[in-house]
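quick one: adenosine-5'-triphosphate bound model?
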Amino acid sequence: MKSISIHAMSVSFGAVQVLHDVDLDIAPGECFGLVGESGSGKSTVLRCASLLNENWTGEAMIDGRNVRDMDVRERARTLQMVFQDPYGSLHPRHSIRSALAEGLRVNGITDREPRIAQAMQDVGLPVEFLDRYPHQLSGGQRQRVAIARALVLEPDILFLDEPTSALDVSVQAEVLNLLVRLREEKGFTYVMVSHDLAVVDHMCDRFAIMQHGRIVEVLPRSAIPGNEATQRYARELIAASLEYERAM
Ligand SMILES: Nc1ncnc2c1ncn2[C@@H]1O[C@H](COP(=O)(O)OP(=O)(O)OP(=O)(O)O)[C@@H](O)[C@H]1O
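yep, here:
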């Protein structure tokens, strides 16, 4: 299990600074949530820490090792991302087998078939699905493929960017439960972006509330039901979410 430590992460797009000195310390095996209004910088934290975006200042360390000191292969075997929209991230004319094989090939891994079969089993999909194409799967099945594509590289850390928000509510719970089980089985460390505090409450040990590119407060999950946030914005965000839950 691996820890993640982000220190003084700042990023600007043109003249606009979208992250201001973000500090986060995430324990090995923890599920850590990032919540906050749209545009507050949650996805940017994941994209910078994984070096999908390289233009930022500060440091991101994994188990004490700077991500910038890792080569692309080491990084891919350490950290994988799962995005919100599996349709957008799976090539429509590539079979599921080739979607899963691609990362293995790019990263010079040769024992591809057993890893692919294992990943399909891990996400609860039959191996016959390997010959299908993305449009031949349901939304939930496609998201399972996106998770399997991350698993084949046997990473230690998964960055999950709204992994279920494109799915029907009933399917959301299945995929979240799959993610809970995988973390228990494999000892993953998760960082999960979500706009839904109910999802954070279900999944995360702790979470950070972000606003305008800053961390407002870091709280344990147990602070949600009684709204124990100390910062005004954090309290308001939790209160709004609790009210919404009650109204449902
Ligand atoms: N490549 C980019 N170029 C310019 N601006 C960007 C880029 N990526 C993000 N931004 C801006 O940075 C800010 C933070 O975006 P980010 O996607 O991190 O927010 P978010 O909290 O994840 O929002 P959402 O919940 O809507 O996904 C936004 O104002 C966004 O418009």
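The pocket of adenosine-5'-triphosphate is lined by residues 13, 18, 36, 38-44, 195 (CB under 6 Å).
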